[in-house]
Amino acid sequence: QVQLVESGGGLVPPGGSLRLSCAVSGFSLDYYAVTWFRQVPGKEREGISCISSSDGRTYYADSVKGRFTIFRDNIKNTLYLHMNGLKPEDTAVYYCASPAMERCGSTWFVSDYIGSDYWGKGALVTVSS
Fold first, then answer.
1. Would residue 109 be called left, alpha or beta, if left means φ above 0 and alpha means ψ between -120 and 50 degrees?
2. How many CB atoms are located within 10 Å of the residue 37 CB?
3. Which of 99, 128, 117, 121 is nearest to 39 (CA)?
4. What is the rounded distance in angstroms from the CA atom of residue 103 to the CA atom of residue 91?
5. What is the pLDDT of residues 13-37, one digit of tens each?
6. Under a CB-based contact definition with an 8 Å cutoff, are residues 125 and 18 in contact?
């Protein structure tokens, strides 16, 4: 059974840092790419970062490039998102997900390509003073 469980969300002031974790079971990060999405109520789910399994290649949305870092620990089978320089507009529910493919692909940021079994339940990040 596939499970992705996010943790590490919370309240952080503007300019602060936070690290999200996603514990994965049911598949190995050695074989599947993994992606972080985020969603604000009333808006589309936004793909913000992806890491491929085979070569570790990473992808970032322009909105987070240079501030967020995606990485993984294949021994722990855990995905991470380290977020620096947080802004109020980063406030959202953050989800980890997997396209159940080796590589992120050109459509990594599109939530429609993620199967329903390959989503976590989300972690709320609030950036506010």
1. alpha
2. 25
3. 121
4. 28
5. 999 999 999 999 999 999 999 999 9
6. yes
